[in-house]
Amino acid sequence: MMYELIGVALVVLVVASLALVLVALSISRVSMSRHVWLAGLFANVLDFFYLPVKAIFCRYADVGTLDAWMVSLKNMANERAFKRTKNRLLLTPHCMRSLDCPAESTRFGIACTSCGRCVFSKLSKDAARLGYTLYIVAGSSYIRHITKKESADGALLVACNYELNKVMRSLKRRKIVTYGVALLTDGCYNTSVDYEKLINVMEEMNRNGDRRNR
Hints:
Layout lengths: L1 H29 L8 H10 L1 H11 L2 H21 L4 E6 L10 E3 L2 E3 L8 H10 L2 E6 L2 H10 L4 E6 L1 H12 L4 E6 L12 H11 L9
Parallel strand pairs: 1-4, 1-5, 5-6
Antiparallel strand pairs: 2-3
């Protein structure tokens, strides 16, 4: 009798979990075009079931779509909290820099020299103007060093959707509120971001009465 009850409970748990994941996926897809309620809850559901859901997407769909949906949910869930942050990082990928970039790599990322060969010369000025500390990173290991060095409570991320989703999960454990802006194209070099969109996001996050420019 006990084993039967355990079996029934397991079946109910599996069915309930599957239904919850399907609802979360549907909501995440809708979030790409309009506001949804309980975005944080559904983002947590997909985070919890990420590996099995990712395996299904890898086989039957584009896993990049899953990451894009999850980033959309997390942005929606984090926007209000991000606007209340005071010490913000702007974490950007090294693949956006010029192929003949003369800057050296340090344990905290690429040390931009503002040589004018790529977007980072301009972005470094806009980041400082808008109250963000810019870092150009070549991988998640750099982010661990940066977050130990900086007492940040917010991080605006620029990357492909896979990396955005990955870093959002990582920084959440460090109590750092994140918001992501996806690259226009994926790749290891010569990538780009919609610069106007990025600046608009940075400015929008400053439209908060409690926010003070540094």
